[in-house]
Amino acid sequence: MKITENKVVQFHYTLKDEAGEQIESSIGNDPLAYLHGHKNMIVGVENALNDKEAGEKFSVTVAPAEGYGERDENAVQRVPVKHLQGAKKWKPGMQAVVHTEQGARQVTVLKAGRFMADVDVNHPLAGKTLTFDLEVVDVRDATEEEISHGHAHGVGGHHH
Fold first, then answer.
1. E strand or H helix at 146
2. Measured in whole angstroms, how far is the alpha carbon of residue 128 from the centre of its chain?
3. 159 pLDDT higher than 70
4. Contact predicate 131/125, CB 8 Å
5. What is the pLDDT of residues 12-49, one digit of tens each?
6. Which end of the chain has fewer CB atoms within 10 angstroms, the N or the C?
7. Which domains does the chain have, with CATH numbers?
């Protein structure tokens, strides 16, 4: 079965930076699952998975525009330290999670004071050209519930 819109795709990935250094991998864990065609995956990876089938292994290099976007050097915000989640004491360079009206957002601490912190709101991988080694594990038709919810359910997907 080919990967097309409204298919639930399970795949393993290994993500590498421009130097070929591994950033993260799903190998050894459950495969990632997503609903194809519903903007649940970065564009470059979703485009590369189009028309692939279970068992296929390949690599794709994704430019920032089709990955996590270009870096915006002006994307700095001052937020109350109490809104930073992930640690008790903050230092420059640490990653934190901030809950916004658009949902949880990963930020990088630039400067932390006692009450306020300056954070970089760019995604940590913004501006980077990334290589994904992909292995398609399974492709199936999405259920009506998955399509109406706009995401995959079950192993590697969303759990209600």
1. helix 144-149
2. 13
3. no
4. no
5. 999 999 999 999 999 999 999 999 999 999 999 999 99
6. C
7. 7-68+126-149 (3.10.50.40), 76-120 (2.40.10.330)
CA dist., res. 102 & res. 75, Å (int) = 16
**Are 119 and 103 spatial neighbours (Cβ–Cβ below 8 Å)?**
no
Taking residues 75-93, report their average pLDDT: 94
Phi and psi torsions of 104, nearest 5°? -70, 140
Measured CA to CA, the distance from residue 124 to residue 87 in angstroms comes to 17
Which residue from 116, 118, 77, 78 is spatially nearest to 94, judged by alpha carbons?
118
The sign of the CA dihedral 107, 108, 110, 115 is positive
Average confidence (pLDDT) over 91-100: 92
Distances (CA, A) of 78 to 74, 98, 120: 12, 12, 9
Instruction: Mention every residue, 6+ apart, whose C-beta is less than 8 A from residue 141.
Output: 1, 6, 7, 8
Q: Report the pLDDT value the prediction gives residue 100, as an integer from 0 to 100.
A: 84
- Write down how long the chain is: 160
Q: How far apart are CA 47 and CA 65, in angstroms?
A: 13
pLDDT band, very low/low/confident/very high, at 155 (cuts 50, 70, 90): confident
Three-state secondary-structure class, residue 125: coil
